[in-house]
TrEMBL record:
MF-aspect GO terms: protein-lysine N-methyltransferase activity
Top-level taxon in the UniProt lineage: Eukaryota
Protein name per its UniProtKB record: EFMT2 methyltransferase
Spans through the membrane: none
Species the sequence originates in: Grallaria varia (variegated antpitta)
One GO CC term on file: cytoplasm
Residues annotated as domain Methyltransferase: 56-185
One Pfam family linked to the record: Methyltransf_31
This protein's record includes keyword Metal-binding: no
Chemical reaction(s) catalysed: L-lysyl-[protein] + 3 S-adenosyl-L-methionine = N(6),N(6),N(6)-trimethyl-L-lysyl-[protein] + 3 S-adenosyl-L-homocysteine + 3 H(+)
Gene Ontology biological process: methylation
Keywords attached to this entry: Cytoplasm, Methyltransferase, Nucleus, S-adenosyl-L-methionine, Transferase
Length: 210
């Protein structure tokens, strides 16, 4: 990938400072990455698998925390969101407060150099964070490897990892997560047609930690 400001902490700090101000002004939580259907897709999969409501869930790069709120509304109780941007966590705290979801845990944390307590989760979810890591102008390849290593520590053996990406194909993600993870399922995403060829603008996969 061509390096991009979308891979820098400075970009996300500035973006979430703006969204935080907007929320304080008009109560708008901001953009939902990949749209509401991406959250519905994740929640439906968890429900189909009959994942217990007390399972520990980690949202990697939680942003405004809206996914966690939707999970809480669906009955999930053990929810944690992390983001390396303090402004994102401030925003998600305000969204949590507005929704009355005080049991959602939120923390400023860099997933590439996680604290020791960031481990033992039943489920890890990523909507766009691995994409952003992949665009980092400073050693993106090394940081992708750090991400996979951190995921291996954060997720329990046999735990599920649900990733939504607009930068990576299924085959590429299988290669990126080949060490320590196996594919369980590809989730359906919207298709588009261009020049007579059909493709997907978004890839959504479920992995299980070996």
């Amino acid at each position: 990938f061509v390096p991009s400001v979308l891979g820098t902490r400075e970009h996300w700090d500035a973006a979430y400072e703006r969204e935080l101000q907007t929320f304080q002004d008009i109560g708008d939580a901001g953009e939902i990455w990949f749209g509401e259907e991406s959250m519905v897709r994740i929640i439906r999969w968890l429900e189909r698998q009959k994942v217990p409501l007390d399972s520990s869930v980690l949202d990697i790069g939680t942003g405004n925390g809206v996914l966690l709120v939707e999970l809480a509304k669906s009955g999930y109780m053990n929810l944690t969101g992390i983001d390396y941007s303090p402004s994102a966590i401030q925003l998600s705290e305000k969204v949590r407060e507005k929704e009355g979801m005080s049991h959602i845990k939120l923390k400023v944390e860099d997933f590439l150099s996680p604290s020791a307590e960031l481990s033992g989760f039943d489920i890890c979810i990523d909507k766009g964070t691995f994409d952003a890591v992949s665009l980092d102008p400073d050693n993106a390849v090394g940081k992708r490897q750090q991400y996979v290593s951190s995921l291996g520590r954060a997720l329990k053996p046999q735990g599920f990892f649900l990733i939504t990406s607009c930068n990576w194909t299924k085959e590429e993600l299988l290669n990126e997560f080949r060490e320590g993870f196996e594919i369980l399922e590809e989730l359906p995403t919207p298709k588009f047609c261009f020049g007579g060829r059909i493709g997907n603008s978004v890839t959504a996969l479920v992995f299980q930690r070996k």
